[in-house]
């Protein structure tokens, strides 16, 4: 008899999502986590000075409130509090201008001058059908329940962000703002499917908001752990898994890990052909991250930037396109596109009174060793003069530090593998059910499966359902 119905290796958001789904279905489950706390890409720590709580990886969680999996959980009963900043996003442009993205589509569009009509036309229909759109897109390829909606989304989204803005938008503000949304793909902006990423982030801003958990992203994990334990699930931390032999017996093992680690740990149980395919899985560019302890809030000149939880710093579409192309050409850009979050403006638990935190990163080539501190801070200073004078302490993470922190971030790749047209739908390998492997007891549930990167839990949720229907019936 097996000690557990299922063991989940890795306690990131997807591993926990898988464990919760299994426990909810009445199965006994154990999560084995390498580090001293659960969370993976969603953890919080005093990285700079005492009393300053920084999100080590993920900070802003549109998909934490939007994903069908998270919406099905009673996490507020387990201590989670979402904070919605006044504006989800602002995007400054030189000349004291900024795109202001609010929860209201109407209000946002009204601020977009010549692009008012086009902005409404692009987003209105998808915002009206946001629930169905999220349901259709946050998972593997399947027969759609809403074929017309998906076809319409596909026709627009399959384009590159470049083709998309050239077709729809004229103003620097909206073109630049859309570039920032699409750049979350970490792909060159003239690549197909980058428009879909921009559209989805826009839709979530208007329909769900871009919130973050009070106290830090780890609070989402703390609530998930409490809920899992209330269902009878068990957790072991400080328990890295190096081979299947060291695990208690279980009918199913789900890996919240990269394909490379899956091969290292479970390769003996997988046929050579499948192993080879896993080894061909492509990882993308890296990230260079900074966290700041600040003597005051970031002094943006634009009012919109002061009111937003997230500020995309990179200027016009053309500038951001150059920055994102450069990382694929092997050289980080001197004026990088920087994603900035300023949680302490809206959450007084993040820093001592009167002080603030800042979170920012830019994309760089995989494994890049260039120190991007000056370039990132110069970009913020460009739109917030006096920013540097407020820095009390900074903490930096090169791609190698990200990989050291979490073995899933190979070369500093934070998306769990390239999310281009091919690999988005065939991650980690092309299979009818990508969460299964040729071994009936081994499954993969990390961001290296559809729908990919982000704290949405959908990879774990789909993988748990695969295990329930295949092995744990
Ligand atoms: C700098 C940065 C910024 C980001 N910003 C955002 C954001 O704002 N919003 C957002 O939604 N997403 C963001 N992300 C992405 C998000 O963090 C990831 O997509 C998400 O965490 C993936 O979840 P996961 O469960 O698949 O894997 P992970 O979070 O990587 O979790 C994997 C877990 O497995 C553990 N593990 C690894 N190897 C072993 C082993 N051998 N044995 C046992 N345990 C092991 C790890 O310690 C980790 O806890 C960001 C990521 C980074 C790095």
Topology overview:
Layout: E1 4-9, H1 13-24, E2 29-32, E3 44-45, E4 54-55, H2 62-66, H3 68-71, E5 82-83, E6 87-93, E7 97-101, H4 105-110, H5 116-128, H6 130-137, H7 147-157, H8 161-168, H9 172-182, H10 194-207, E8 212-213, H11 218-230, E9 234-236, E10 250-255, H12 259-266, H13 272-279, E11 286-294, H14 303-307, E12 308-313, H15 317-328, E13 338-341, E14 356-364, H16 373-383, E15 391-397, H17 399-405, H18 421-425, E16 442-444, H19 458-470
Parallel strand pairs: 1-2, 1-10, 2-9, 6-12, 10-16
Antiparallel strand pairs: 3-4, 5-8, 6-7, 11-14, 11-15, 12-13, 13-14
Flavin-adenine dinucleotide (FAD) binds at residues 9-15, 32-35, 40-42, 57-61, 63, 240-241, 256-257, 261, 287, 289, 361, 402, 406-409, 414, 416, 446-447, 453-455, 459.
Q: Can you characterise this structure?
A:
By secondary structure, the protein is an alpha/beta fold. It has two domains: 4-43 and 59-82 and 213-282 and 418-470, FAD/NAD(P)-binding domain (3-Layer(bba) Sandwich), CATH 3.50.50.60; 83-212 and 285-404, Polyamine Oxidase, Chain A, domain 2 (Alpha-Beta Complex), CATH 3.90.660. The protein contains 19 helices and 16 strands. The strands form four sheets. It has a seven-stranded mixed beta sheet with strand order 7-6-12-13-14-11-15, with helices on both faces. A five-stranded parallel beta sheet has the order 9-2-1-10-16, with helices on both faces. A two-stranded antiparallel sheet has the order 3-4. The chain is globular and about 70 Å long. The structure holds flavin-adenine dinucleotide. The site of flavin-adenine dinucleotide has 41 residues, from helix 1 and strand 11. Flavin-adenine dinucleotide is lined by residues 9-15, 32-35, 40-42, 57-61, 63, 240-241, 256-257, 261, 287, 289, 361, 402, 406-409, 414, 416, 446-447, 453-455, 459.
């Amino acid at each position: 008899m097996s000690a557990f119905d299922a063991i989940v290796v890795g306690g990131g958001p997807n591993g926990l999502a898988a464990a919760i789904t299994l426990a909810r279905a009445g199965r006994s489950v154990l999560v084995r986590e390498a580090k001293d706390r659960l969370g993976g890409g969603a953890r919080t720590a005093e990285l700079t000075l005492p009393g300053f709580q920084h999100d080590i990886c993920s900070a802003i969680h549109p998909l934490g409130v939007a994903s069908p999996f998270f919406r099905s959980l009673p996490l507020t009963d387990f201590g989670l509090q979402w904070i919605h900043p006044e504006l989800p996003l602002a995007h400054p442009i030189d000349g004291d201008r900024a795109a202001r993205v609010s929860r209201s589509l109407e209000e946002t569009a009204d601020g977009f001058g010549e692009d008012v009509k086009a902005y409404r036309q692009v987003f209105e229909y998808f915002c009206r059908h946001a629930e169905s759109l999220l349901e259709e897109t946050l998972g593997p390829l399947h027969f759609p329940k809403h074929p017309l909606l998906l076809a319409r989304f596909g026709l627009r989204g399959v384009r590159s962000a470049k083709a998309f803005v050239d077709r729809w938008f004229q103003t620097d503000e909206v073109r630049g703002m859309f570039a920032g949304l699409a750049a979350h793909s970490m792909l060159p902006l003239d690549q197909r499917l980058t428009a879909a990423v921009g559209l989805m982030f826009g839709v979530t801003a208007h329909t769900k908001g871009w919130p973050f958990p009070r106290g830090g992203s780890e609070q989402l994990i703390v609530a998930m752990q409490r809920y899992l334990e209330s269902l009878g699930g068990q957790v072991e931390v400080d328990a890295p898994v190096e081979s299947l032999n060291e695990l208690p017996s279980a009918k199913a093992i789900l890996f919240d890990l990269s394909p490379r680690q899956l091969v290292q740990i479970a390769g003996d149980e997988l046929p050579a052909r499948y192993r080879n395919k896993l080894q061909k899985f492509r990882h993308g560019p890296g990230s260079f991250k900074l966290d700041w302890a600040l003597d005051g809030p970031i002094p943006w000149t634009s009012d919109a930037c002061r009111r937003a939880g997230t500020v995309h710093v990179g200027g016009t579409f053309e500038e951001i396109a150059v920055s994102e192309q450069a990382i694929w050409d092997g050289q980080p850009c001197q004026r990088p596109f920087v994603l900035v979050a300023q949680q302490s403006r809206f959450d007084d638990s993040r820093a001592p009174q009167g002080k603030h935190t800042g979170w920012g990163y830019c994309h760089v080539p995989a494994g890049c060793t260039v120190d991007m501190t000056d370039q990132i801070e110069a970009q913020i200073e460009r739109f917030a003069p006096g920013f540097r004078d407020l820095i009390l302490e900074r903490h930096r993470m090169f791609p190698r530090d990200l990989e050291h922190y979490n073995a899933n971030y190979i070369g500093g790749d934070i998306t769990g593998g390239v999310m281009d047209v091919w690999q988005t739908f065939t991650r980690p390998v092309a299979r009818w059910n990508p969460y299964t492997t040729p071994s009936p007891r081994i499954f993969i549930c990390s961001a290296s499966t559809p729908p990919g990167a982000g704290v949405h839990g959908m990879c774990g949720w789909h993988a748990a359902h695969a295990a329930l229907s295949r092995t744990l019936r």
